Amino acid sequence: MATRLADSYRLLHPAWGDRYGMTHIAAGPRGVPVAVRVLTSRPRVRRADVDLLTAVRHPNLATVRDVLVDDRVAIAADAVLGRTLRRARLTADELVRVADGVAAGLTALHEQGVRHRTLSPSTVVLDHRGEVVLTDVAVGHLLDLPGSAAEDWQALADLLSTVWRNAHGRWRRPPPELRDVWADTMARARDMG
Question: Which residues pair with 24 in a beta bridge?
Fold first, then answer.
């Protein structure tokens, strides 16, 4: 059964959840599909935060369309159809491409003064065209989670290691091109830290 949220979004069904909230597939204005993340806590939301988050645009980021505040706080963002990296079995070349896409998305966020703070295999999606899209870009900011730009880069390095190990076994050494990307990512984390 569908539920309405702020008279603009009709929640159709839950997609997934974690400690920060539940993400629903929803019908937005004019029936456009969106992902609506209903937060478990009710943070104080300032107009400046909403303006900042909805202004960030990049091909590797799920665009935040709206932040809804009533008896709960919800984030409406582009629905990204595809698969997360949670169980992805990627080659080294594919993982390098993922690293490039996530790095581009993080750079766009950081240039606007936003930190992701919740980067994980669950927040990186390979969409139906094979493009890399970073989701949950507003959660850490609205919940004021701890984290810096350097920690976002460290999280990317950790994500690359985790996805490689999950797909290829703990003891299989990554090829040089992936080790180079990992080393570059760690250098960014050190430079920003």
Answer: 14, 36
Contact by Cβ (8 Å): 159, 120: yes
Tokens of 124: 């990186």
Query: Is the same domain home to 87 and 173?
Result: yes
**91 and 156 belong to one structural domain:** yes
Tens of pLDDT, residue by residue over 134-153, are: 999 999 999 999 999 999 99
Helix crossing, 176-192 with 149-168: angle to 10°?
Answer: 160
Query: Does 178 lie in the same domain as 108?
Result: yes
Distances (CA, A) of 17 to 22, 35, 39, 123, 168: 4, 12, 10, 12, 27
* Residues 69 and 87 grouped into a single domain: no
Average pLDDT of the residues in 60-70? 94
Instruction: Give the predicted TM-score (pTM) of the model.
Output: 0.91
Structure-token match 């974690």, residue found? 18
Q: Which domain holds residue 23?
A: 3-78
pLDDT digits (tens, 9 = 90+) for 8-44: 889 999 998 999 999 999 998 888 899 999 999 999 9
Q: Domain of 159: which CATH number? A: 1.10.510.10
**Rounded Cα gap, residues 34 and 92, in angstroms:** 32
- Would you say the C-alpha torsion 54, 160, 155, 69 has a positive or negative sign? positive
Q: Please indicate, yes or no, whether residues 181 and 116 belong to a single structural domain of this protein.
A: yes
Q: Are residues 69 and 102 in the same domain?
A: no
Supply the Cα-derived Rg of the chain in whole angstroms. Answer: 17
